[in-house]
Amino acid sequence: MNQMLGRTTYLGQSDYSWLGTANSKVLGFDSGELDVGLFRDAGLSPHEVILSGTPVGRVTRGGRLGPFDPEASDGREVLFGFVRGDEHVRGRDRARCEVLVRGPVRADRLRVPVPAGSFEGTGLVAVRDV
User: Fold this and answer.
1) Strand partners, 83
2) Which position among 22, 40, 49, 97 has the lowest Cβ density within 10 Å, counted as fewest Cβ atoms?
3) What is the pLDDT of residue 45?
4) CATH of span 2-15+23-127
5) Tens of pLDDT along 31-43?
6) Residue 16 in contact with residue 52, Cβ under 8 Å?
7) pLDDT in tens, 6-26
8) Ramachandran bin of 12, using left for φ above 0, alpha for ψ from -120 to 50, beta for the remaining angles
9) Quick one: which of 93, 78, 88, 102 has its CA closest to 30?
10) How far apart are alpha carbons 124 and 20 in whole angstroms?
11) Phi, psi (5° rounding) for residue 106?
């Protein structure tokens, strides 16, 4: 376990098979703050873990990240990116995380499906497994 700046990351548990490449030179990351309550409401953290590869959108009001939802009207209908590693959020209302915002994503390996059109206008590219 690595603790820095109030953030806990558990190393070695995340499934990165959804990443379209292992070449870190073509991947771009941004940081953000997860609104854990939005994930609980959507049923996406049943074990108090927001899994690597979970798609997120940025809530217009406040700028926190919540689960991507094409039917939302609070900003989360626009794909912002994908949570980089498993985030253990038990007992927390918010959590800092890194988000993949640029690079290839194996859409068929995502735990939460994302419509193909959602990638338009982002730095993300949906690729098929080869």
Assistant:
1) 99
2) 22
3) 58
4) 2.40.300.10
5) 999 999 998 887 7
6) yes
7) 344 444 478 999 999 988 888
8) left
9) 102
10) 10
11) -80, 90
